[in-house]
Write a structure and sequence with these properties.
Layout: H1 2-15, H2 20-27, H3 31-37, H4 45-89, H5 94-108, E1 119-122, H6 125-138, E2 146-153, H7 160-171, E3 181-184, E4 201-206, H8 210-237
Parallel strand pairs: 2-3
Antiparallel strand pairs: 1-4, 2-4
Helix pairs in contact: 1-2, 2-3, 5-6
Length: about 240
């Protein structure tokens, strides 16, 4: 008797255009039971269109909810490891800075041995600031000897003054010390979302620093030699 009543209610809801999932939830029955009881009921095109739209919206909400949960999980993990990072790093010693800067120059520096200034190139202001600190605190470079270049697409030419202001403020270097802004040809077809917040690639060059660059290259060669030596020892041990 109870099932007969539930079956009739299920069929009535289906005729009104309710989805099988909704019917099962409202009547607290299994979706398979709702499907069997209502299998002969055909929805109108309008009812089916409404259900399709509703299901798509529900799917979108589910994806957004999942994305938000994943984002929060990522933010929580970053915050946790930021705290742990502060504990582990503490204050950087001069040797810490030396090795950190050498790693940075190894990856982002100009290493050609045919002359020219010591230069580190990157678009990340934090990387450039670390390079600036390394040059000044470890290698004794004067701020007056810093000669930055900026490389950026031609489409940013209208923002030249703003771009110079940004890097000048970031580095604490007067605009008059910047050599120029190099606008790269080849205009992109699309305008990117970060157009107003992108400030190009900065080449942090040190004037009259050929000998300094040779010193840096010598330090890098010493690091490379130690790495090769360590690898050979491990190979022999194995």
């Amino acid at each position: 008797m109870v099932k007969a009543v539930e079956k009739e209610k299920a069929r009535e809801l289906r005729r009104k255009g309710f989805s099988l999932s909704t019917i099962a939830k409202l009547l607290k029955i299994s979706k398979s039971s709702a499907s069997v009881w209502c299998e002969d009921i055909k929805l109108t095109k309008r009812q089916q269109a409404t259900l399709d739209k509703s299901q798509k919206a529900a799917g979108y909400r589910g994806r957004m909810k999942g994305a938000q949960a994943n984002k929060q999980k990522r933010l929580d993990a970053l915050a946790k490891h930021k705290i742990q990072g502060d504990r582990d790093v503490k204050l950087l010693s001069k040797r810490d800075l030396l090795m950190l800067g050498l790693g940075l120059y190894w990856g982002e520096g100009v290493k050609a041995d045919r002359g020219g200034p010591a230069t580190i190139v990157n678009s990340d202001p934090d990387v450039i600031l670390m390079a600036m600190r390394w040059f000044r605190e470890v290698l004794g470079v004067s701020k007056d000897d810093v000669r930055p270049y900026i490389y950026i697409s031609e489409i940013h030419r209208p923002r030249e003054h703003k771009i110079l202001q940004y890097w000048s403020k970031t580095l604490g270097v007067p605009q008059k010390q910047f050599i120029n802004v190099v606008f790269l040809k080849g205009r992109p077809k699309k305008k990117y979302e970060n157009y107003d917040s992108y400030y190009g690639i900065l080449a942090l060059r040190i004037r009259r620093s050929t000998d300094l660059k040779y010193k840096i290259l010598g330090l890098l060669q010493a690091c490379a030699q130690q790495s090769r030596g360590s690898l050979m020892v491990k190979t022999e041990d194995s």
